[in-house]
Amino acid sequence: MSPQEFRQTYASDERLFTGRFFPDGPLCLDADSHVGVLLLVPGAPESRSEVFSYLYRRLVSPLKGGLSRFWRSHLAAWLRARIAARYLTGQYDAIGGGKAINQFHREQAHMLQSMIDRSEPGRMTVYLASPFGSPDIAASAEKMEKDGVTHVILLPLFPQYAAETTGRSFAEWESLMRQGMVSARPTVAVRQFATHEGYIEALSDRIDQGLQRFPRHVRSQVQLVFAAHGSTTRQQGSIPDPYCCLSHHTVNALMEHRGHDRPWLLAFVRPDSWGGKLAGDIPARFRDLAASGHRAALVVPVDHVTEQFDTAYLLDVRMREVAEDVGLSHYQVVNGLNCHPLFMETLLDLLRGPLGRRREPLPGMDCFDSCPRPDWDAEPEGRCAACPFGSRAAPRDGSARAADASARHGSGQLSRLFRRKIGLQAFQGLFRTGLIAQDFPSANKCDS
């Protein structure tokens, strides 16, 4: 589905921001069932000739505004993709190439398949698909048809739900069903795992491994820089995307797990561009670190579970140059989770929810009624300029500093809009009023 077709079909669809394209489960299976587990991944261009098209599909935003705004987005994405493709094509081999990066996804799928075969009853097959290119989602759908899959679980490898990643993937799959390219069959989906215990533990272990790469005498001085690659609520405008809030939840859960063992900050490194350009506040944040005496930074991508094509250049090359320019002489980037045993166990646990084999339901997206940001204000190392639900180290009584932070990073009105539109009560209300309709076979009921 082209970006223009996507905009015409889904631009005003609330499900892009709730993820309610498909139910959570559980599936109703019998002895003849064949479950297809579709891992939804970012993917990567398999050759230099695919770099531009891959970047364009990731850059263009079919979710915002009317037709004129879409065409402005199309033109801007086309120009930025052309410029970024020049950088990334030249660095294609240096950053591993698309084939090497897609290999991580294939290894994850192979390992998950082995774990399923050992521990889960019934017939289940793992497939890979990306909404942005290779591995092609339509080709994966065709393979599932040939294999005789009767039920589908959509499992995105995007920890935090975002309309332009997980939402886009769900919409692409639904579109294939509506067009008849995929047979209508019971389909369930996992929407996010931003605070899943296994994911947090695996990410913490990668941080410990990253710290070992620093000289022993500077390890205690290393600042953690959490890198999120989507947009803050301020940049999203009136779009009620939960990505920003879920990213804060990930960092909050991770630092609580680590006992707040060292200073850290959360930076949205690429809110308006892709490829060779960083967000404007990154140099300023690094200069602040250097001015406060820090000489070492460990960058931790909070929204990627494997190395990715364009971010390998962004984090390993561009951010490193900025860090060294301002005096951060020790700079490292945490390795992706890839096939980390704890993360693979997390994926298996995520599957057990839709299969009805988990004692407790998987967490939903009701994060706006329990935002962790207010608790960060009391901790100097917890300052974050991105979240609109609190100020930078602001007092709880809503002082002028809080008002200033709200003006810069998202108004109080916007906060209330978010709470209204995608809080848990809003989700429940949409179902009660029938605004979210399911046109496909129910995953929650067996045919009598």
Word description of this protein:
The chain has 448 residues and is an alpha/beta fold. 46% of the residues lie in helices and 10% in strands. The chain has helices at residues 3-10, 15-18, 51-59, 67-90, 97-119, 137-147, 163-178, 197-211, 233-236, 243-257, 281-291, 309-326, 341-352, 373-376, 400-409, 412-422, 424-433; strands at 34-40, 123-129, 151-156, 187-189, 223-228, 264-268, 296-301, 330-333. The strands form two sheets. A four-stranded parallel sheet has the order 2-1-3-4, sandwiched between helices. The chain has a four-stranded parallel sheet with strand order 6-5-7-8, with helices on both faces. Strand 7 (296-301), helix 12 (309-326) and strand 8 form a beta-alpha-beta unit. Helix 3 packs antiparallel against helix 4, helix 5 (97-119) packs across helix 13 (341-352) and helix 8 packs antiparallel against helix 13. The longest helix is centred in the N-terminal third of the chain and has 24 residues, at 67-90. The two termini are 36 Å apart. Mean pLDDT is 74; it is low at 271-276 and 377-442.
